[in-house]
């Protein structure tokens, strides 16, 4: 798997755990100059995040990016539900993630269907 496809898989999951880690990886990927040292740094960052719980702020940021895939195609009811769930979002009360996972399937957004954040949300809600 290339680092680009691995990053596509992990991007929003990383964002949901740490904005700093997300920025660090973006800096590593700058100019598309990827090497073994950067790969190791990338893998270490992702691995370290396994022990970092999302905060309300990091979830909001990640979910706003995910919502960007739907904002032009969602129904007015879906937009209202998104905004309402966003207001009540917390790491302990994450109905928004579940809702975004449902929209991902409804609108068949392949990029998101193959992303770690959506995959893990679906697994947690089975």
Which short descriptors sum up this protein?
single chain; 126 residues; mainly alpha; 71% helix
- Biggest β-sheet strands, sense, barrel: none
Low-confidence stretches: none
Content of β-strand: under 5%
Structural class label: mainly alpha
Q: Whole-Å distance between the termini?
A: 28 Å
Annotation field: number of helices: 8
Report the mean per-residue pLDDT as an integer: 95
SSE string, helices as H and strands as E = HHHHHHHH
Gyration radius from CA atoms, angstroms: 15 Å
Specify the helix fraction band. Answer: over 70%
Short description:
The chain is mainly alpha-helical and 126 residues long. The chain has helices spanning 3-17, 19-29, 36-49, 56-67, 76-88, 95-106, 110-113, 116-124.
Explain this structure.
- The chain has helices at 3-17, 19-29, 36-49, 56-67, 76-88, 95-106, 110-113, 116-124.
- The protein is an all-alpha fold.
- Helix 1 (3-17) runs antiparallel to helix 2 (19-29).
- The model has no long low-confidence stretch (mean pLDDT 95).
